Amino acid sequence: NAGVTQTPKFRILKIGQSMTLQCTQDMNHNYMYWYRQDPGMGLKLIYYSVGAGITDKGEVPNGYNVSRSTTEDFPLRLELAAPSQTSVYFCASSHPGGGHPTDTQYFGPGTRLTVL
Amino acid sequence: AQKITQTQPGMFVQEKEAVTLDCTYDTSDQSYGLFWYKQPSSGEMIFLIYQGSYDEQNATEGRYSLNFQKARKSANLVISASQLGDSAMYFCAMTEALTTGNQFYFGTGTSLTVIP
Lengths: 116, 116
Description:
The structure holds two protein chains of two kinds. Chain A is mainly beta. Chain A is built from no helices and eleven strands. Chain A starts with a strand and ends with a strand. In chain A, a hairpin with a 2-residue loop joins strand 5 and strand 6 (54-57). Chain B is 0% helix and 51% strand. Chain B has strands at 4-5, 10-14, 19-21, 24-25, 32-39, 46-52, 60-61, 64-69, 74-79, 88-96, 104-106, 110-115. In chain B, strands 2, 5, 6, 10, 11 and 12 form a six-stranded mixed beta sheet that branches.
């Protein structure tokens, strides 16, 4: 299993541009998540999904959109990029039948995004 | 209120010594999970150890143990026999059973440096 994969690894955007961060997992996990990590800080939840076709906002959703058309994929869309969105973005997934406190989240390697 | 508090921004430990990284949490749920993740300089998030709120014994995973004091709402990570490769950021996280989607709340992290 590849686990959770993210592309691209690095990206530089100009203010106002748009892009999609890709996330794929091959562990058949129902639950998937997008986090951002600002320098020297912990992770903050942007959006999450409990299954295909179901998404919900996390703590910091403004400026982002997500979709979940398949179990495997959970892309994050940035519209009208702003310097405040410069961050490292992590995708994660957790065990099928999640919702229990035992469900460890497994993380992708991250995407480092800079908006200039 | 912060769900997870890590009060040690940086810690130093001598190689082969033990070190304790502090974590306190805030929840009114009876059922919750506590996690520790390691983030080396390469950036990935590595799961280390899990403790469930109903677990009576402290969790252990190799050189890692979690000192769980429920009444104090603390979940400190103890690393025994520190190694140079333990130098990294360490994040404490919590999930609550009543929270939709098994959302994780992360602390701000502790940077651990192991000195040879």
